[in-house]
């Protein structure tokens, strides 16, 4: 799920600690300044340098001049996400690359990372985007197939989890919990692009909006590990989880996927690791964070490998570094499981401060070059 919304003090500290993770490309991928839209965010405003741009690749050059951590979204009118960047600290700058066709969009800044945000309209003109490398079309098609497969394979695992809950079998439900989440965690940016599914199935207690009912995996996680009971409400929530995830499964094929959204999604998955898994916040009751951690990394690596042939031509050094850092992080994660094919990882509450720092450093080392992937495939 997306990182829990932080208080200003906590968020500032988090941004300081995660500079390498939340950073982005040091230069624009756009050869023409007309492809860059400046976005100036404060605690009460969201100003954009352009209201209209031609179809094609676009880069948002974001500067947070406010006192709160913010996030910036490029949205379709129905709130589906084209691209996003979270955890933009006060006084920092970031860049977000996206690909847009003709139509109307919204640029939204969310001070404090809450609510619908302060929005500006962006009109995109022109009938189509520039013709792209056919290898990128294949990468998109292959990734769409991958995302659908992950959704299709998740439902049977969720059915096992839900059956255990409906049977009142606490231990069986605990055993089925983490495996039921792997496909979701591998492709989370696709699910989040719909906007309405993630808050139903993957929200944590501290991520709830005012008046929002807590549903989904983490509500059931709390019942199993902290409350140690399965009641009528949990059984109803289990059925609702199946309903919501079936909706996700049916909608995956309709997701808007582009090469840049794949690259940005890979970076978002590393941000998920940094803001939820490394800290132990994601699976705070079950401590199965390393299962999610591994799934996030696998999802990011899948996007990268599909884009690698094109990225290698435009930035061979970047590909070399990404291969190195993915291998290092994979090797580090292998220390916490009995073999390289198992998803039975060490309980995260057993990983001490030194181990968590080692994991955090490895994530940071990968996230910095991964933030440059979108620019490499957009050249």
Describe this protein with a few key phrases.
alpha+beta; 379 residues; 50% helix
Radius of gyration: 20 Å
Q: What is the percentage of strand-forming residues?
A: 15-25%
User: What is the overall silhouette?
Assistant: globular
> Roughly what is the average pLDDT, rounded to an integer?
88
Major sheet details: 5 strands, mixed
Provide the helix percentage. Answer: 40-55%
What ranges have pLDDT less than 50 throughout 5 or more consecutive residues?
A: 3-32
What series of H and E elements makes up the topology? HHEEEEEEEEEHHHHHHHHHHHH
Question: What structural class should be given to the helix and strand makeup?
Answer: alpha+beta
Query: End-to-end distance, in Å?
Result: 30 Å
Strand order of the largest sheet: 3-9-8-5-6
Q: Count of DSSP E strands? A: 9
Oligomer: single chain
Number of helices: 14
Could you please describe the fold and organization of this structure?
The chain is built from 14 helices and 9 strands. It has helices at 8-17, 19-22, 134-166, 170-177, 182-186, 188-192, 198-201, 217-227, 232-251, 259-277, 289-314, 316-334, 353-370, 373-378, and strands at residues 36-41, 46-48, 52-54, 56-64, 70-75, 81-88, 93-100, 103-109, 118-125. The strands form 2 sheets. A 5-stranded mixed sheet has the order 3-9-8-5-6. Strands 2-1-4-7 form a 4-stranded mixed sheet. Helix 10 (259-277) runs antiparallel to helix 13. It is globular. Mean pLDDT is 88; it is low at 3-32.
């Amino acid at each position: 799920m997306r990182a829990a919304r932080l208080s200003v003090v906590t968020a500032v500290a988090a941004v300081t600690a995660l500079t390498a993770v939340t950073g982005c490309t040091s230069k624009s991928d756009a050869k023409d300044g007309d492809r860059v839209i400046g976005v100036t965010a404060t605690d009460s405003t969201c100003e954009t340098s352009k209201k209209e741009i031609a179809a094609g690749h676009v880069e948002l050059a974001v500067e947070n001049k406010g006192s709160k951590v913010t996030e910036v979204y490029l949205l379709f009118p129905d709130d589906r996400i084209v691209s996003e960047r979270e955890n933009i600290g006060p006084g920092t700058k970031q860049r977000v690359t996206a690909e847009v066709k003709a139509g109307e969009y919204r640029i939204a800044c969310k001070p404090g990372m809450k609510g619908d945000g302060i929005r500006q309209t962006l009109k995109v003109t022109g009938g189509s985007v520039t013709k792209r490398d056919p290898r990128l079309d294949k990468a998109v098609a292959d990734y769409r197939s991958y995302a659908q497969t992950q959704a299709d394979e998740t439902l049977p695992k969720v059915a096992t989890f839900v059956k255990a809950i409906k049977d009142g079998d606490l231990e069986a439900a605990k055993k089925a919990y983490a495996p039921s989440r792997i496909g979701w965690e591998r492709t989370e940016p696709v699910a989040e692009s719909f906007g309405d599914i993630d808050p139903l199935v993957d929200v944590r207690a501290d991520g709830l909006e005012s008046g929002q009912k807590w549903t989904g995996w983490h509500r059931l996680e709390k019942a199993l590990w902290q409350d140690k009971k399965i009641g009528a409400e949990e059984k109803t929530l289990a059925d609702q989880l199946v309903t919501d995830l079936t909706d996700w499964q049916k909608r995956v094929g309709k997701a808007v996927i582009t090469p840049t959204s794949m690259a940005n999604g890979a970076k978002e998955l590393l941000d998920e690791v940094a803001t939820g898994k490394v800290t132990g916040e994601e699976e705070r009751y079950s401590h199965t964070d390393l299962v999610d951690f591994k799934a996030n990394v696998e999802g990011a690596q899948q996007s990268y490998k599909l884009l690698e042939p094109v990225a290698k031509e435009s930035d061979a050094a970047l590909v070399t570094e990404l291969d190195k850092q993915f291998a290092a992080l994979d090797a580090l994660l292998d220390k916490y499981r009995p073999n390289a094919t198992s998803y039975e990882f060490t309980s995260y509450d057993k990983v001490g401060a030194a181990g968590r720092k080692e994991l955090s450093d490895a994530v940071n080392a990968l996230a910095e070059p991964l933030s440059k992937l979108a620019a490499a495939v957009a050249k």
